[in-house]
Amino acid sequence: MPYINSHSNSRYISAFDKWQEQKDFVKFTKDDEEALKKMHPTAMKYADDFVEKLYEHLMSHPDTKRFLSDEKTLNRLKLAQKAYFLDLTSGDYGEEYFNSRLKVGIVHQRIGLPPRIYMTTYCYYMQLIIPTIYGNPDFDAETANAIFMALYKIINLDQELAISAYIHATDEVISRQSEEIMEMSTPVIQIWDGVVAAPIIGTLDSGRTQQFMERLLEKIVETNSPVALVDITGVPQIDTATAQHLIDTINAVKLLGSQVIITGVRPVIAQTLVHLGIDLTDIITRPSMAAGLKVALDKLSIKVTDMSKTTQGS
Amino acid sequence: MGCENTGECHIGSEGDIVTCRKVIRNVATAAGFGMTDVTRIVTAVSELARNVYVHAESTGMMRWNILQQPGKVGIELIFEDQGKGIADIDQAMEAGFTTANSMGMGLSGVKRLMDEMLISSELGVGTTVRVVKWGRIK
Questions:
Q1: A129-163 burial, b if ≥16 CB within 10 A, otherwise e?
Q2: Percent helix / strand / coil, chain A, rounded to 5
Q3: Residue range A189-299 in CATH 3.30.750.24
Q4: Contact B47/A239, CB-based, under 8 Å?
């Protein structure tokens, strides 16, 4: 199934040319288009009635009713629904059709309508449509079967597009959130005139190190800070790759003429680092950020005196 | 936590290294290892899973087993890949030796973090690394 495999490249959304392949795959042919066109007059005749029945059905269930809050929305949806229904038998299944079906999934995802409701509503829809095919005096048995089969294919294609769009939209939300989390989890803040602090939470993988290093270097230059505290309290374990990332960062900071103090070195981390044989003897390390700040203030020849009078800043 | 006594994780991306660590952290904690040992085990997992990810051209696997013996509990971790293999295992175990432009401390470090370590490798076929950590039952 070449179409389904292509999902990884296209991030779940079906490119239009892939949809052509999909049509070929389900053997949706010119004959099917012709069969659906034969259904069009019937569709025109019943469209308003179907839409009314469909919304009556939706309004009678609390699960679906909550999406149909006010009269205005309802009327707009009914019009859209009618157009959607008539499109099914329009005979034109090109790019415009493709885009309108994708949009259905995207819009539904945005308003939080679960695919479950979309699918079951479609099932109800079919129950309205099928009797008008087989009970139709204009169609002989063969024509009715051809129309049914064509309708089945196009609805399957419709549903696939909508579901792919659903997945794609959800996927986009996830990737946006993970970017946000990444940004949030590597803040670089100035905590004293001349001292910036960067608490690292979680794991330092190569992607994050790059981002973290950029932000740290920028902040050091921006604030003209001679000392940077990199706090690893929130790093669950440090392996050689993470240690290498840290050392790279420290070396880059050195090139700017500033110095890094690693703080928040927990006893378990200290032990594993020694076992791993990682040499951090050239680097100033402290068990807590408070201890690191003290070292930083000493380096800047800043003395903080205790209370009663005033706390002396820089 | 309801952890199983055995299981496996697929290693095909950098994200899978994170998954391996998370799984083993839970498994080792549930098995009764103390925090220091858990950190050692998870660090070793991180090293070995990264080796699979970096060196194996195709993908690899991590399998784990909880070993029960009178008075002690163990965790056995087996990393398998179908990569290019290691030419000289003794050399690979030396601190500072690397073919990947990294620190070269990984394998020698893992040996110190764990209690048992066995590497078998065939050029062009793949590499299997088996490590075990023992802990006392509290």
A1: beebbeebeebeeeebebbbebbebbbebbbbbbb
A2: 65, 10, 25
A3: yes
A4: yes
Q: Is B25 left (phi over 0), alpha (psi -120 to 50) or beta?
A: alpha
Cβ-based contacts under 8 A for chains A and B = 69
**Nearest CB partner across the interface for B46, out of A207, A237, A278:** A237
- Residue A28: count other Cβ atoms within 10 Å of its Cβ: 20
Residue A165 burial (CB count, 10 A): 22
- Number of Cα atoms under 13 Å in the Cβ half of residue A177: 6
The pLDDT tens digits for A209-263 are 888 888 999 999 999 999 999 999 988 888 888 888 888 899 999 999 999 999 9
d(CA A89, CA A163): 21
Quote the CA–CA distance of A80 and A86 in Å, as a whole number. Answer: 10
Nearest CA in chain B to A240: B106
Domains of chain B: 6-136 (3.30.565.10)
Buried b (16+ CB within 10 A) or exposed e, B53-87: bbbbeeebbbebbbeeeeeebbbbbbbbbbbbbbe
- Residues B117-128 have a mean pLDDT of 89
Phi-psi bin for A235: left (phi > 0), alpha (psi -120 to 50), beta?
A: beta
User: Which residue type is seen at A209?
Assistant: T
- ipTM metric: 0.75
* B14, B46, B108 member nearest A239 (Cβ): B46
Q: Do B113 and A276 touch (CB under 8 A)?
A: yes
Q: Is the pLDDT of residue A311 over 90?
A: no
> Rounded distance, CA B102 to CA B106, Å?
9
Residue A63 burial by Cβ neighbours in a 10 Å radius (0-12, 13-18, 19+):
exposed
Domain boundaries, chain A: 2-178, 189-299
Interface test with B, best of A203, A240, A280 (most B CBs within 10 A): A240
Q: Which stretch of DSSP H or E encloses residue B75?
A: strand B72-81
| B contacts of A271 (beta carbons < 8 Å) | 36, 39-40
- Domain A2-178, CATH class in plain words: mainly alpha
Backbone angles phi, psi at A176, to 5 degrees: -70, -40
Q: Chain B: give the shortest CA distance to residue A296, in Å.
A: 29
Tokens found for residue A48: 């308003």
Q: Which two tokens stand for residue A289?
A: 């950020």
Token pair for A47: 């469209």
